Model the fold of this input.
Amino acid sequence: MNSQLVSGALFADMVRGGAARLRANAAQINDMNVFPIPDGDTGDNMSMTLEAGVHALSDRPSERLDEVSERLAGGMLLGARGNSGVILSQLFAGMAEGLSGLETADVRQLSAAFDRGVEKAYRAVMTPTEGTILTVAREAAAYAASHLTDESTVEDFFADYHRELRASLTRTPDLLPVLKEAGVLDSGGVGYDYVLDGMERVLHGETVRDDFVPAPAAAAVDLDKFGPDTEMLFGYCTEVLLRLRSDKGDPERFDTEALTDFLSGVGDSIVAFRTGTVVKIHVHTRTPGRVLDYCQRFGEFLTVKIENMMLQHSESVFARPSGDQQPKPAAPPKQIGIVAVASGAGVCETFRQLGADEIVEGGQTNNPSSDDFLHAFARVNAEVLIVLPNNGNVILAAEQAARLWEGAEVLVLPSRTLGDGYAALSMFDPEAGSVDVVFAQMRDAMQGVETVSLCPAVRESHLSGVSVRAGDVIAVCEKQILCAAPDALGCAERMLGQLDLTGKSVCILLCGAEATEAGSSAMTETVRRVCPALELYTIDGGQDVYPFIFIFQ
Done:
């Protein structure tokens, strides 16, 4: 097969092949974690991101390449999870921009689209790190472009692209010493390699096995939950995917702000933003018919979903709840609202008590998507939203959601740990002055905070001069293993003895889901014995992965 053009149908099949290969190898990618702890989730994040795009393709098949790439990118932007997932979504979003207006693409147009993807992905990261998926994508695109000739086919382009991708991947340890020390390749780059492998296999006519299980259908309606005398408290969860039409106006001049103003007059919990000529809308309203009538002035519906919230059975991806699962009226208006990421019942409750308006549940091994953030934003009635990702692998998804959200100004405070988030919330004072002053106080509060997590090691390793055996308990601070010991108490004692706690007066101990009552009590006594000058507060956090997290302030 010697293809001169790529159609929308072929590109969609290739992406499905890439998603299948990525999904089948997600566990292997997860295991390529630099640290020997059970928190690897790169494979899952990338797979769920790409599958969100594939799911968007299934709604309305198309032969046009621009329509397929646009829907794929839109789904991926919403479903993006983790840093590698966000970067993957940006690569495909840039490709969609490069393919705009094209029913099919020849090899040079395809190459230009891949270049556009690299540019967009680099722009999405404030401080790009070489030796990651970014490098692999950039070098592969440049190599394939440099080898184009007038006789080049689509197969030639993908062969050159994939060949250099793998060569670049083998060089990632030379660019990131931590990869070389751990003896692994960049996991995001490996995930991208599987995507390209699946795409290339389909291009050559191979059928890639796809074990994808679609989202479960909505549960059967429980008619007893809403009877003839039931009071209608919450209205209808109304979701619309609207395709703007040229025969109803200029799609490029569609006013999203006017749409939001209208929706605010008929409901709350509003999500409304545009990707190309597709507008995504979510609103809680008592009059869904008014929403449909208004939207149809500008286009036609791709999907419509209206559900009585009294039944509380909606499981749609677009209206997926997080934090408080019960529908509720809109919160009273305020100047500044806080959205924080946390996991564990005790940690979530602590963050709420400190001032968080909404909790996006997630963290290690369970990174929230950009869509999760959007729905949290919709539940906070504030002029300005301050977002605390509280995990280094969640920051990009939060920033991506901030760029999509038009209902308020969104400021992402780059908190990388639960300790950062705890410290920032402790200093949250909405009466301190302007938004800039409040934000600066929260940002400054994170400076000097030390967060150390204890966790059992899943494999033997030697990092940062520390030898670790499988089954040891290790102490991790930032991106460094501080020490290891056969048990948690021994590890904590070593960590407390070697950590410079000069200027620290308080220790917050978060006890995780795997910490027993006896173990938590023994850990408390160890801290008091080794560091008697510290004021100790213990919280039954309930967090996963890390049995104990220490926050030193």
